[in-house]
Design a protein that fits this description.
Number of strands: 0
Structural class: mainly alpha
Oligomer: single chain
Strand content: under 5%
Shape: globular
Mean pLDDT: 80
Low-confidence stretches: none
Radius of gyration: 17 Å
Number of helices: 7
Distance between the termini: 22 Å
Length: 251
Amino acid sequence: MNKALEAGFWGFVAGAALLLGAAAGYLAPVPRRVVAGIMGFGGGVLISALAFDLMDEAYRRGGFDSTSIGFLGGAVIYTAVNWVLAHRGAKHRKRSGGQQPSEKDHPGSGTAILVGALLDGIPESIVIGVSLISGGSVSVATVVAIFLSNIPEGLSAAIGMKGAGRSARYIFGLHGVIVVVSAAAAVLGYSVFSKFSTEVIAATTAVAAGGILAMLSDTMMPEAFAEGHNMIGLVTVLGFLAAFVLTKIGH
């Protein structure tokens, strides 16, 4: 299979988990503590993947300088853009407990939520494409980690959007757009960055890792702890361990 198409396929697969989660959140009465537990598990999965897969790969390709600069840069970019979006109504885009504003309460919040959801998903997809550069195979651990973390993201976001009065057409349309963009971002991750030096590729991988960790700290983990409290630490550790095992099996 053409590498660019392969990248798009895996980006689509990882992103499709958002639709699965959104369908479960919209159609089934999922208890909020269950949502919190799934969110915590997904957070642990992503922390493990970025620590043992993304950052290790970035360091192997470009060394400490490219990795550290990219990692900090990703966190700064995510935090800055997220700060803007939070003031436009997207602060609680992953919350399931009724914190999301309706369009009536905060005009323009729907657009901000869409942009915020893309901000959360694009770095993950670019990494999938980058992992195929230099004739390599896709990182199974990364794809599985993103897939597992996207399910609770879609689940929690859909519950919150439904509670804010947003229609099924909006909820599934939004998540469908993210899936398509995720596939396109994976293709671009391979096609664009394959033309750059190993240092740039390393920095790009680290940028994604920094953005993911900032996202976890800002959205996923607060949502998990707010509803799950004391059990979330254990659930997060289980997610971390599951992804750690996948990483080692992949190597």
